[in-house]
Amino acid sequence: MNKQSLLQINLTLVIWCMGVLLLQSCGSARRSEPIIGPLALQSQQLENGRQVFMLNCQKCHPAGEAGLGPPINNVPLPGAALRFRVRSRAFALGIGRMPSFKEHEISDEQLDDLVKYMKALRRHKTKPVASAKRLFPFLA
Amino acid sequence: MVKPTHLLLFCTVIFLMSSCYKLRGHYGGPQSFATQSRLIKPSDVALPAWYSIEMVATGLTYPTGMTFDEQGTPYVTESGYAYGEVWLPPRLLKINADGSTTQVAAGDKNGPWTGAVYHNGFFYVSEGGELEGGRILRIAKDGKTTVLVEGLPSMGDHHTDAPIVGQDGYLYFGQGTATNSGVVGPDNYNYGWLKRYPSFHDIPCKDIELAGQNFTSDNPLTEAKGDKAITGAYLPFGTPSQPNQVIKGAVPCSGAVFRVPLQGGPLELVAWGLRNPFGIAFSPENKLYVTDNGYDTRGSRPGYGSGDVLWAIEPGQWYGWPDYSGGQPMNTEDYETPDKDPKFLLAKHPNSPPKPVAVLGVHSSSNGLDFSSNSQFGFQGEAFIAQFGDMAPEVGRIYGPVGYKVVRVNTNTGEITDFAVNKGKTNGPASEMKHGGLERPIAVKFNPSGTALYVVDFGVMPMTEQGPAPKQQTGVLWKITKTTAK
């Protein structure tokens, strides 16, 4: 692959990253029970994940919304990326950073539960159809 | 070719500069305490299904707490003093059926009055004591006032906090610390009190041994340019500490829960090592709980990422301030700021701090606390907490407004769930969202039957470049009831 092709691929990647970040970051992260309704947890794994979230994530991302840290409900990271994010420490230009959570703090099993819960929380939002009905009542 | 690191940096910059991810800055224009109009629109507040909210009283100036007399009539405290250095007479007001108020008592310039509890014909009011030190006042219905406790160390960042009466005939209340994390610094000058009381500092409740950590800062007390001060923990500004130096404990002290007999008597220490135990309540099982405001990212010894805490209080315990946050040691990378690592100030710790019941949002200012005890209201046994909302950027930088709502906590699991929040795409105070919902909830209290939850809303307080700018006559008393059996 020549230099020109690599540059084009990287530029495409940059544009894709920007698009994902900007579009997703502007989607609402609100999953608050009074607004969306309660999140029904259908399995013990999800219950366990919520416990892990409350102990470790809630204080900086209340209910997955922005707080000390950015919102996480509206960022469509896959499970592997979420796991990497929890395990790795990150600074962002010296103005904010998330601690890493080691295995003695969140075990691998707990991390699986947490990721499952975070995905369930992300999916727990006003359904597009319902939104559309609000905007276009004649659809009802 | 674009290197992956450059790509990552570029994306990060875009991520941060995007309007959806910008850090919260100052807002509200120039600092002013003037009265301003406030839209009140209960439908802008979201609640769980079957609950509704209504406005009970409006036009209050810096309301902080409330109580009920034997007829179920609500009374509200107005703080008088507020952050931003505004000084008004604190007041105890009766809320009449039509929403108007009748003054029961007023204080001088020794606010803030942070809350009240009514018991057997008397109101017990916590007088914050920013100018003269904290007091507990006993006020009869005719306004006659006597002092139950005085000389509390309240001239600093935090004050004497709201009281509650226990079944044992004692009055329980919290006392906040003088500083953010044990060291007096320029941030305390900015708060206003270091200039007034340059020798004021935190007082431990029991003898402690210092590690000898010292902090060099600008000296705002002198005109000399570039003048520096070196300050140790639990010592006056500009006084360094020595390794293994013993600081004698005393009562009253900073960052503690006390109790005193209702008829008066010696002050007793219940628990210490707290930072600002603002909210206090007994659960239906008669267990004592407090809310505690976590560390800020400010001053000579800033900490990062310290959540507010709901504690179950065990008598005699030390809860970790100034070296632990929510039961975790602060001398770890989790709590460090870009240029400082909050190392331990104490050479020895009185005990290993307990685990918290729940850790709430960093900078949420989780304050007033009460428990649901009536199945008719629902969520029986759960704790309800008023979150005043962040004071960013003074307390630290954040990505989005934190607090400005009422949450409920399952004390068995530590699960935190929103209960009353403002509607909108994001969270925040009503004035920023340009609607008529909640502004800064500071206290919650169930009525005597437990069928209604009252929310004391402090009012509009933007964080301007000159500091907090609380607006007079913007406080509101809300009432939440369950409308239909689920």
Give a topology summary.
The complex is a heterodimer of chains A (140) and B (486).
Chain A: H1 3-25, H2 33-36, H3 44-56, H4 79-87, E1 90-91, E2 97-98, H5 108-123, H6 128-135
Antiparallel strand pairs in A: 1-2
Chain B: H1 4-17, E1 45-46, E2 51-60, E3 63-68, E4 74-78, E5 91-95, E6 101-106, E7 113-119, E8 122-127, E9 134-140, E10 145-152, E11 160-165, E12 170-175, H2 186-191, H3 193-196, E13 208-209, E14 214-218, E15 228-232, E16 246-247, E17 256-261, E18 268-272, E19 280-282, E20 288-292, E21 307-312, E22 324-325, E23 328-329, E24 358-362, E25 366-371, E26 383-387, E27 405-409, E28 416-422, H4 430-433, E29 441-446, E30 452-457, E31 463-464, E32 467-468, E33 475-482
Antiparallel strand pairs in B: 1-28, 2-33, 3-4, 4-5, 5-6, 7-8, 8-9, 9-10, 11-12, 12-17, 13-16, 14-15, 17-18, 19-20, 20-21, 21-24, 22-23, 25-26, 26-27, 27-28, 29-30, 30-33, 31-32
Describe the structure.
Chain A: InterPro entries: Cyt_c-like_dom, Cyt_c-like_dom_sf. Chain A: It holds the Pfam family Cytochrome_CBB3. Chain A: Keywords: Heme, Iron, Metal-binding. Chain A: This is C-type cytochrome. Chain A: Residues 44-122 form the Cytochrome c domain. Chain A has helices at residues 3-25, 33-36, 44-56, 79-87, 108-123, 128-135; strands spanning 90-91, 97-98. Chain A has 140 residues and is mainly alpha-helical. Chain A has a domain at 42-124: Cytochrome c-like domain (Cytochrome Bc1 Complex, Chain D, domain 2, Orthogonal Bundle). A two-stranded antiparallel sheet of chain A has the order 1-2. In chain A, a hairpin with a 5-residue loop joins β1 (90-91) and β2. Chain B is mainly beta. Chain B has a single domain (21-482), classed as TolB, C-terminal domain (Neuraminidase, 6 Propeller), CATH 2.120.10.30. In chain B, β3 (63-68) and β4 (74-78) form a beta hairpin. The model of chain B has no long low-confidence stretch (mean pLDDT 94). Classes of the chains: A mainly alpha (140), B mainly beta (486). Chains A and B meet through α1, α2 and α3 of A and α1, β24 and β28 of B.
